[in-house]
Amino acid sequence: MNTFKEVHGNRGGVDHEQKTLKLDEEAIRKAASADLDDGAVTPGYGPYRDSIVKLLNDALATELVCVLRYKRHYFTADGLESPAIAEEFLQHANEESAHADKIAERIVQLGGSPNFNPDSLSERSHADYDESTDLKAMVRANLVAERIAVETYRQMIELIGDKDPTTRRLLEGVLAEEEEHADELSDWLRR
């Protein structure tokens, strides 16, 4: 239980109101001592942990499908502008792979198991795999996937809110990079 203490003062003829926060030390120690095998996951995570792990596993599947799509497009891009676009695809693939690693790490921190099962990746992914051969179609497919990721992460952040601040901050960072990817791909489509 957090308690607030109001302190009033008069400095230099101006009234100042200062609020201080005081932690409930007893509750902290009790939560920290319970279920030590859970690592960083204290009882404060409450009933949402399993739901958050499921959301993260679906996001992990999405990131992995995006890596595969970008890698395919990187290796099969063909045309006058293909070297520059292919490099963009490779950069995005590597960044999506880094997102997947961060998400998998967070799943483990929450006591879950990251699901890398290739048999169910496309079913769990929010974005689609794509086998386009036309350069513009590749860019468009990747832009749609990035926009799906942006909306997915936005909704996840909203759902998680204060239930798990660490996961929320992780997702906010991933969201910022997905928005950047979408902007870059949008620029390519306008050329």
Automatic annotation (TrEMBL):
Keywords annotated in UniProt: Iron, Iron storage
Pfam families: Ferritin (PF00210)
Matching SUPFAM superfamilies: Ferritin-like
Domain Ferritin-like diiron: from-to ranges: 46-191
GO terms of biological process kind: intracellular iron ion homeostasis
One cellular-component annotation, GO: cytosol
CDD domains, sorted: Ferritin_like
Top-level taxon of origin: Bacteria
Molecular function, one GO term: ferric iron binding
Protein name: Bacterioferritin
The organism of origin for this protein: Oryzisolibacter propanilivorax
Lineage: Bacteria, Pseudomonadati, Pseudomonadota, Betaproteobacteria, Burkholderiales
